[in-house]
C-alpha cells in the first residue's frame, strides 16, 4: 500500500486539516501517517480556540521513523504553525528526496485577500521558500499573491494573469504549480495548473456554487494527493479532486442540518471511492 505522511495541525473540532486528510486519504486506499504540528480545540474561525504548539515533537517523531527505516511515497503539508516548522519541514524534504518521495505543499495561510489569524508577511516569505523545495504546490490566489509579494487582485484577473502567476510560482523552485479557486467564466470555478518541465497548462472547472465553507481547500488537497499517489497523473487527480470538492459543497448546501463550521465531506466519500 502506498503511504502519505501529512504534516498539519489537528483541530479537534471543525472539519479541516488532519480530521479531513486522514479519512479522505484512507478512504482512497492509501495509508496516512501524520505529523501533528499543533493541537487546537477548533479551527481558527471560532473564537477562543486553544492552541498547543507541537514544534518540539516534530524532529523526534521524524528521527524515530528514520531509525525504524520508514519510507513514504509522498509528504503533504498543510497548516503549519510557525517559521521554525517551515524550516523543519524543509529539512524533511531535503532528506526524503533521496528516497524518491514527492513533496506537495498546500501553503495554508490565507483566503479572500487576507492572512488567517496568527500569520504574517514574514511567514508567507518562509512558506514561499518551502514551496521552492516542493514538487507540486496548491495555493489559492490569495496565498500565491502573498508568496510572490504582489497585490491581491480579487476577481479582477484573466487567464493570462493566472498563467503568469503560475510561471512565477514555479520560479520559486517547484516544477509544478496549481492555483485553486480560479474562475474565468461566471458560474464556473476550478483550478489551473502549470508544469514547467513541459510548458503545459491544464485547467478544469465545475459549477461555482454560491457559498464559501471552511476546510474545502483541505478536502481538495487530500483527494488530489490521494489520486496522485495512486498513479492517476496530475490531470486526472485534479479533475477527481475538483469534482469531489464540489460534490461535498453541494451536499452540504442541500443538508438543512449541516454544520456551519465545515462541509459534509463524509457524505460524498462513496462517490469519491467510485472514481478510483
Ligand atoms: O482549513 C485550513 C485550516 C487548517 N487548520 C487550521 C485553520 C485552517 C483555516 O483557517 O484555522 C487551524
Tell me briefly what this model is.
The protein is α/β, with parallel strands linked by helices. The protein is built from nine helices and eleven strands.
Give the topology string: H per helix, E per strand.
EHEEHEHEEEHEHHEEEHHH
Enumerate the distinct ligands: 3-hydroxy-5-(hydroxymethyl)-2-methylisonicotinaldehyde
What's the CATH C level?
Alpha Beta
Please report the distance between the alpha carbons of the first and last residues.
Answer: 15 Å
CATH fold-level topology:
UDP-N-acetylmuramoyl-L-alanine:D-glutamate ligase
Per DSSP, the total helix count is: 9
> Structural class per helix/strand content?
alpha/beta
The domain count comes to 1
CATH superfamily: Ribokinase
Portion of residues in beta strands equals 15-25%
* Unreliable stretches covering 5 or more consecutive residues: none
Mean pLDDT level: 96
Name the overall outline.
globular
Strand order of the largest sheet: 3-2-1-4-5-8-9-10-11
